[in-house]
Write a structure and sequence with these properties.
The complex is a heterodimer of chains A (about 575) and B (about 80).
Chain A lengths: L6 E6 L5 H9 L3 E4 L8 E8 L2 E8 L11 H10 L4 E7 L3 H12 L5 E6 L1 H6 L2 E3 L1 H8 L2 E4 L8 H8 L12 H15 E3 L6 H10 L1 H49 L5 H6 L19 H27 L2 H14 L7 H9 L1 H6 L7 H14 L3 H12 L3 H25 L8 E4 L7 H35 L2 H16 L7 H6 L4 H8 L6 H13 L4 H11 L1 H25 L1
Parallel strand pairs in A: 1-4, 1-5, 5-6, 6-8
Antiparallel strand pairs in A: 2-3, 3-4, 7-9
Helix pairs in contact in A: 3-7, 9-11, 9-12, 11-18, 15-17, 15-23, 15-24, 16-17, 16-21, 17-22, 21-22, 22-24, 23-24
Chain B lengths: L2 E3 L8 E7 L3 H9 L7 E7 L6 E5 L2 E5 L1 H5 L1 E5 L1
Antiparallel strand pairs in B: 1-6, 2-3, 2-6, 3-4, 4-5
The chains are: A alpha/beta (about 575), B alpha+beta (about 80).
Chain lengths: ~575, ~80
């Protein structure tokens, strides 16, 4: 019988750098498992310990104590039972607060070692910790480490082989706090220190008077950077690859298939002027690969790069604090700004970030608002390009209507949907300079996760649309919806294919309006309705996963309803 | 000094936590972040329109929703 793998658990308060230590311990052999549908996810990897090459290391979600208050806490508490060794990761700059969990953990009588993380920061902050005394008081090994730089990790691994099981008599809460007070007075000395540049910046970005202008600046700079990196990747990497390397291959396949027929239509799609057109041909090997890999992936990459930097810097909790009171008016709380901002880049990562939100109510409101009123970067670019030719005022009109919708729908949903948005209570971490290696690693995990999840869905979407076209379902849909499009929105029948394309790709759909000779009013209505009526296929799938079928259906009805009403009102009043 | 709500405390002032009104859940969550009876905290800022209050507890900065901050009674130092 094979010996069961040893399990090492990394446990500690939220935001103490567990993941940095995790990636140091597991090195390149990292697998990430993200469990869908909940806010809880944990990573699992392998490391070598002694002669055992396959020791499992689990990065357990951060908890403050073992008295579960939320779902995420419950998972952590359950997982703790299954460990062979616990590495209790502790933020050395916050020793007092972190020790409560440590005292709880040691009562579980599982071999435990303490990693005193952020050791380098203690010196900057004027904190002095007496490690030998701390070991004596806690009755276990303590190793100062720095997950970001790798300091102390080797010693930590060596000492892992030495940890032994010990028994501790359980203490009551009061006794624990008393003991913590004693430990702190014995082991920790605080010295006066001068404020560092980062700390000064911490202060000015926390106060509202200076914090709000900084927030605007940071958001603007982030977007410029996302666009710059994304567009450069498309222009210099993904498009040349598809045009020069992939095109000759699929041209051969197309030729081999005789340039027409059912199989050709599904794999390659229709030829435009006798040639393959990546955006319009609509085959699995053409549009089905080009859209997710060449057009969306570069943006996802640049987006997650910038997000990773902001996250590691510690800016997001500050931004969330600045906008919290505004978000409460929309039935959300500060952290909902994250999916909203992400959504402006691409609704797909925006929808993924919905899991940051705690309650079902908040997820529903945020998802619906995002689908209705937050156009993605690609869509913004197309609207600006196409409608801008008729005058900048019309572009402003479209985005103005969307902004108005965001506010009106948010306020309404906040009033109508039962419940309240939860109160803010979070730690504002100190700024830390992002480490390139950690950023790169996180970026790689996120991008590969996106590729694994998005590509199959887009392929499936293209396949379904091709099959439905072949069996004339779209003609039926066109006939069914023509009263809405024609009578209520005042749009010609010719816009129907664009409206259907909008389910798959909003930017391509807007592009399809270009040759239709629409009046300015029709164009403005068509663009607005396209933005509102439904999310694109990829977003829909992610939202469905985050919201569940029931809430997604409700949300979809709200989107379609809003589009119908807004389109009609615009047709009447414009 | 008399006991006031944390929302009434002026920015940059320090105070000792006297009591936290509210259930066990809130008490535990605040305690986990280092805010419990007898602890010294310093208010960093408050946000307009009943926005969150930010405080410094030990070496940690914490944002607390207005409603919750209102339930924290403190005595200014």
């Amino acid at each position: 019988m094979a010996k069961q793998n040893q399990k090492i658990l990394l446990m500690g308060n939220p935001n103490v750098g567990k993941s940095a230590i995790f990636s140091r311990l597991t090195g390149a052999k990292v697998t990430i498992s993200n469990y869908p549908g909940t806010t809880v996810g944990f990573s699992q990897g392998y490391m070598k310990l002694g002669n055992d090459n396959n020791v499992i290391v689990i990065d357990v979600p951060g908890v403050y104590n073992l008295d579960p208050l939320s779902k995420a806490d419950e998972v952590a508490v359950q997982m703790q039972e299954k460990g062979d060794i616990i590495i209790n990761v502790v933020d050395a700059t916050n020793l007092e607060r972190n020790l409560f969990l440590s005292l709880e953990l040691r009562e579980k009588n599982i071999p435990m070692i303490m990693a005193l993380n952020m050791w380098d920061e203690t010196r900057h902050k004027g904190i002095e910790i007496d490690v030998p005394t701390l070991q004596k008081e806690l009755g276990g090994l303590v190793v100062p480490v720095c997950g970001l730089t790798g300091f102390g990790i080797k010693e930590l691994v060596e000492k892992l082989l030495l940890v032994k099981k010990r028994h501790f008599t359980p203490l009551t809460r009061e006794q624990k706090w008393e003991k913590i007070g004693r430990i702190i007075s014995l082991t920790q000395k605080l010295h006066h220190h001068h404020h560092t540049l980062l700390e000064r910046f911490e202060d000015i970005s926390t106060r509202p008077a200076t914090g709000i202008p900084i927030a605007v600046l940071v958001v603007y700079a982030s977007f410029s950077m996302i666009r710059l990196v994304g567009e450069s990747l498309i222009r210099y990497v993904s498009e040349p690859l598809f045009n020069r390397v992939w095109m000759p291959i699929i041209e051969r396949i197309s030729f081999f298939l005789g340039q027409k027929g059912v199989l050709h239509n599904i794999l390659i799609g229709k030829l435009v002027n006798g040639e393959i057109d990546y955006e319009k041909s609509f085959g699995l090997l053409t549009t089905g690969l080009f859209v997710p890999l060449a057009e969306v992936l570069p943006y996802i990459l640049s987006f997650y790069l910038v997000l990773g930097i902001l996250e590691d810097l510690g800016y997001l909790p500050r931004l969330a604090t600045q906008v919290d009171n505004l978000m409460h008016k929309l039935g959300l709380h500060g952290y909902a700004i994250v999916p909203m901002i992400l959504g402006l880049g691409c609704n797909v990562p925006g929808a993924m970030a919905l899991r940051l939100l705690e309650t079902r109510r908040e997820k529903f409101i945020a998802a619906t608002l995002m689908a209705v009123a937050i156009p993605c970067m690609a869509q913004i670019a197309m609207i600006t390009g196409l409608v801008g030719k008729r005058g900048g005022g019309f572009v402003a009109l479209i985005f103005g209507i969307l902004l108005l919708l965001l506010i009106v729908k948010g306020v309404l949903m906040n009033k109508i949907i039962k419940g309240k948005s939860p109160e803010v209570l979070w730690e504002i971490p100190p700024y830390r300079l992002p480490q390139p290696l950690a950023i790169a690693k996180k970026l790689w995990m996120r991008v590969s996760e996106f590729t694994r999840e998005a590509v199959p869905y887009v392929l499936l979407g293209v396949l379904i649309i091709n099959v439905l076209t072949a069996i004339k379902v779209f003609d039926l849909l066109g006939w069914l919806f023509s009263p809405v499009i024609h009578n209520l929105w005042g749009l010609p029948e010719g816009t129907m294919p664009a409206m259907l394309m909008g389910f798959l790709r909003k930017d391509i759909a807007i592009g399809m309006l270009a040759p239709l000779d629409l009046t300015t009013k029709q164009l403005v209505i068509a663009c607005t309705v396209l933005a509102i009526y439904f999310p694109c296929m990829a977003t829909f799938i992610v939202m469905l996963r985050e919201l569940g079928l029931k809430d997604m259906l409700k949300s979809a009805l709200l989107m379609i309803g809003t589009a119908t009403v807004v389109g009609t009102l615009m047709n009447i009043f414009l | 000094m008399e006991e006031i709500s944390l929302t009434k405390l002026k920015s940059k002032k320090s105070a000792i936590v006297r009591s936290i009104e509210g259930g066990r859940g809130i008490q535990r969550r605040l305690e986990a972040l280092g805010i419990r009876k007898g602890k010294k905290i310093t208010k960093i800022s408050s946000h307009f329109w009943k926005g969150p209050v930010t405080v410094l507890a030990g070496k940690t900065k914490i944002a607390i929703g207005y409603g919750m901050a209102h339930k924290i009674r403190v005595r200014e130092e």
